[in-house]
Structures are given as C-alpha cells and as structure tokens.
Design a protein that fits this description.
Blueprint (H helix, E strand, L loop, with lengths): L2 E2 L10 H12 L10 H21 L6 E4 L2 H15 L4 E4 L5 H12 L4 E4 L10 H8 L5 E4 L13 H10 L3 E4 L19 E5 L10 E5 L25 H16 L1 H22 L4 E2 L12 E5 L9 H7 L2 E2 L15 H7 L6 E5 L6 H19 L1
Parallel strand pairs: 1-11, 3-4, 3-5, 5-6, 6-7
Antiparallel strand pairs: 2-8, 7-8, 9-10, 10-12
This protein binds pyridoxal-5'-phosphate.
The site of pyridoxal-5'-phosphate has 13 residues, from helix 3.
Length: 379
C-alpha cells in the first residue's frame, strides 16, 4: 500500500480536470493573440475560464490575472505595491510562505521598505492588537498575511484584518494558496487588494495560478512583453493550464461541503487514533483545532533517538508526508515556521495533509506504521 498524505504540497490531478484540458492540448494549439479562428477559439477558452473564476470569487473578470502559480502571484502583488502604489512599510509575519518572506526581505535589503513582523501567540496565531499598533505608523503600509498556513493550518480572520486595513488606509495582500478551493471566498465581503492562487493545491495542474488585483488599485506591468493579461503580464498564455484551473476551482467549489466533511472526518479520526496510541503526542499550531485548515494536521512526536529517521522510515513504508523540525540538523533545513513559533526546541514534527481521495483505511495503515516505527522504539 502507498499512501499520499502530502496534499498541502500538491494534489493529484482530478480526472475530470484532465478531461477538460485534453481537447485544448490536442486541438487548441492556436496562439490566443492571433486574430484568426485558431487564436480566437483558445482566447475564448481563456476568457470563459476567467469568468468562471471571477464568478466563484464574486469578483470582476478584469480583476483576475493568470500567473505561473502562487509564487509569481505573491511576488507580483508585493513588488507592484512598492513600485507602483507608494508602499514604504510592509507588515507581515514570520510564518508566511517563502514566496512572501523572501520577497519582502529582498525589498528590505534593497532599502525600499521598512519591514515589521506582527506578534504571534503560542500557537502561531496573529495578534490583531499588535497588527493595529503597527498600522498606526504614518507610512503607507502593505499588510501581507496568509489566509491559511501551509504548515500549521492556522486560519487568519480575513474579514477582520481587511477591516483593520481599511481603517488605517493600508493595502492588504493575502496568500490564499492553501484556502482557495477549500474555503468559500467572497471578495464582495472582504476588503482585500490582492489574493493568490495555485491550481495544483486543489487537484488542478501545476504551473498555473492567478493573482486577484482589486479594481480599486492600478498597477504597472509585472512581466514585460506582449499585451497579454491586459498588458500586465506578457507571454503566451498557458491555455490548457488556465482551462484546468477553472475546471478544478469549479469542481472544488461545487463539492466543497461534501469534501470538507470527508476530509475533516479523516483528520479527526487520525488525531484521535494518534492520541490513543502514541503517548506524549502533541499537535503543532492550531492544526488540532476545529477552525484550522481541515486539510492539515501537524504532529509533534516525543523525541526519540531515531527522530531524524521518522520521515525516512515513513517513506520506506510507502507513506508520503512532510517533515519539518525547528532545528536545522541533518539534511533537513528545518522549518522556519516551527522555529518562529516554538524556537529551537527539537520536536520531530510531521505534517500530514489530506485530500478528497484519502480513505479511513489509509489512516489506519499510517497509524499502524507509526505505532510500529515509533512506539516500539520509545520502549
Ligand atoms: C501558502 C503557499 N503560498 C505559495 C505557494 C507557492 O505556490 P506555487 O508552488 O504554485 O508557486 C505555496 C505552495 O507551496 C503555498 O503553500
């Protein structure tokens, strides 16, 4: 048996998404910028996809810009805010994805911005009081805080943060890569200027995503070239990716509650069986809480002599999941997220992340292996 529990890293392609992409791969080879019929057909497929996505998010199609994925979208939002919108101060957290952290650090290194990190509580949750303190500066600020944390499963109250940003006239960027397709997002109800998406996190293809840019703001191109994406991002479009992205989001949104119940059931089951079977187990961040990402469970095992071998042994047993300990020993570079919340305490941590394709039998198999690998070694 092989079990894939690394769905926060990426998800398998849904066969229905592949079905939607195949005609474009086979016949839709025209260049969307060409004015002849071959071009017009694929251009129409792109614009229909844009409309589908905009409708799901309650946005305007003109607010959706296709990108190569989450990283490009995060980079573009942050760079453009500084270059085009007068941002001189960025407020973020130490548990953001590197697509955000490395971008803001680069801007700070270049002397273009002042960087502030918002305080986190003992579970890694953002302090809204401290955020408000930071927003009270006179500089024009960009708040960049992720909606769902890919390691800890922590969820940011998007609406409340949006209101704080509105109160202090700040721009708000939220990396929604982990929540897109898993949580309903209604952009009419949230004051947010940029959100980001990567299709491969909800059974779509890799290398495609989008950046939502609110109509309230106007930026300059972020990839120079042709007139694609309303002059903002040059380059011949990834047409089959775009069609796959729209299909994946459509499927994820229309079955969201059903998938949520299934996945949440698996997560709770795993949590309970782990607590019953492995003494001293703990859960990182907010991942054991009802309000966290239902796709993520981050487990801290009690340290053993063989802690460093845990992931390796799981892999040998056919189980795919992600590691991340706070310490940087061995080949694992360590998790900047666990380090930010728990310091250098070395707790062998494993992130299990689930999808609609996982089953209860798979969870039983994983817990059995963990018992074999772990409990035996402790005693
Ligand atoms: C929270 C978050 N942001 C951004 C990204 C980057 O997305 P992509 O791999 O599509 O560039 C990821 C994926 O690993 C992610 O989990």
């Amino acid at each position: 048996m092989r079990v894939y529990l690394d769905n926060a890293a990426t998800t398998p392609l849904d066969p229905e998404v592949l079905e939607a992409m195949l005609p474009v791969l086979k016949q839709g080879f025209g260049n969307p910028s060409s004015i002849h019929a071959y071009g017009r057909e694929v251009k129409a497929a792109i614009e229909n996809s844009r409309k589908t996505i905009a409708k799901i998010l309650h946005a305007a199609p003109s607010e959706i810009f296709f990108t190569s994925g989450g990283t490009e979208a995060d980079n573009a939002a942050i760079f453009c805010s500084v270059r085009d919108l007068g941002i001189r101060h960025i407020i973020t957290s130490r548990i953001e994805h590197h697509a955000v952290l490395h971008t803001v650090e680069e801007l700070e290194r270049e002397g273009k911005i002042k960087l502030s990190f918002v305080n986190l509580d003992e579970k890694g949750k953002v302090s809204l009081e401290h955020l408000e303190e930071l927003l009270k500066t006179n500089e024009r600020s960009l708040v960049s805080l992720m909606h769902g944390n890919n390691e800890l499963g922590n969820i940011l109250p998007l609406k409340e943060v949006g209101e704080l940003c509105l109160k202090y006239n700040a721009l708000f960027h939220s990396d929604t890569v982990q929540t897109m397709g898993h949580f309903p997002i209604n952009l009419q109800e949230i004051n947010v200027h940029f959100i980001t998406c990567a299709a491969h996190k909800f059974h779509g293809p890799k290398g495609i995503g989008f950046l939502f840019i609110s109509n309230k703001i106007k930026i300059q191109p972020f990839i120079f070239g042709g007139a694609q994406e309303r002059n903002m991002r040059g380059g011949t479009e990834n047409v089959y990716g775009i069609v796959g992205l729209a299909k994946a989001l459509e499927l994820a949104s229309s079955h969201m509650e059903e998938h949520k119940q299934h996945i949440l059931g698996l997560k709770k089951y795993m949590l309970e069986t782990l607590v019953e079977n492995i003494p001293g187990i703990q859960f990182n961040g907010d991942s054991a809480n009802e309000n966290s990402l239902y796709t993520v469970l981050n487990v801290a095992f009690p340290p053993t002599e063989n802690s460093e071998m845990l992931l390796f042994n799981l892999d040998i047993a056919g189980i795919a999941c992600s590691g991340g300990s706070a310490c940087s020993s061995g080949s694992n570079a360590g998790s900047h997220v666990l380090k930010a919340v728990y310091g250098d305490v070395d707790r062998p941590s494993v992130r299990f992340s689930f999808s609609k394709y996982n089953t209860k039998e798979e969870i039983d198999f994983v817990v059995e292996k963990l018992k074999e690998l772990y409990v035996v070694k402790v005693s």
